[in-house]
Amino acid sequence: MIAKPSNNSSIPELKQIIIPKHPEWPKLTAAEKTELKEYIKKLLKEQNAVLAAHYYTTADLQELAEETGGCVADSLEMARFGTTQNASTLVVAGVRFMGETSKILNPEKRVLMPDLSATCSLDEGCPAEEFKAFCDLYPDHTVVVYANTSAEVKAISDWVVTSAIALPIVEHLAQKGEKVLWGPDKHLGSYVQKMTGVEMVLWPGSCVVHEEFKSVALERIIKLHPDAAVLVHPESPENIVKLADVVGSTTALIKAVGSMDNKEFIVATDKGIFYKMQQAAPDKTLIEAPTIGVGATCQACAECPWMGMNSLQNLAETLEKGTNEIHIEPSIREKAVIPIQRMLDFAATRK
Ligand code: 13P
Ligand code: SF4
Fold it and tell me: Tens digit of pLDDT for each residue in 58-76?
């Protein structure tokens, strides 16, 4: 049971989130792409920089990160990666919270992003002041926030988690008898609550990309491909999670494609992940879970519009001009690093 505040009006009303149009980058010929990639490689080297790319960025960016000794990873691994590098500049291709987390963990390094306006609907839907007011209603709860939040929200939290580590961390808190206030993703929160049985209060945020997967259409596709395994990221609504064979972080879903015997997979998460899935199992067939339905609001179905703001073109420009640097106010950084480091320390004990 989700514990509700006694005064229902205290459940925050979320402001409307403006979803940007998915950017359309000018198409490059193969020769132009090779030339641009070589140019970026040269800039990375000259500036003692490494590139960390999330699984939802374009195949070009993921390939470039691989070719230059950077990393292609989920948000937990991206956070860890920066702390292991000698490079003086970290370039983060992903969304803003990923760049901020890198900067919080590596204050001495320069952290650049191809586009600082690449945010996330979860982050945008959880303003620090309102979240703080919500937390104040539950002073006896441990505040656990998803990494997809601003540095300011992290600064008022006890724990940061990513989808790869949320379940064990909440189980750990439950063993200590703690009650959990969870933000901002209500779907991931209710999944964690269901799996752990922990009493949790949930902030009502959601991801506009995963919110769009449609269960009726998914059931239809499952009927057409009865031998396919259904892979679902837990940011998806409960009726989609119910249809899954595997629910997990981006890394867990990629691993499932490599390790399961199925020849076909229906994938309910951002399709940028197909690059790594195809690499893990080139002979397997990947099918996009359907997103089109009445009431669809995501303007770039199964493609995060904020992740789409990263390209080879603006990465080159960022390195060239040294623009789009992440700065975090020291007083915020000091507080935000505590719950992030707590997560990394916890993750290290499980390795
Ligand atoms: P991961 O932590 O699995 O990389 O997910 C981050 C994210 O934003 C998913 O939408
Ligand atoms: Fe945020 Fe959703 Fe985009 Fe992930 S896919 S970055 S949760 S908006």
Answer: 999 999 999 999 999 999 9
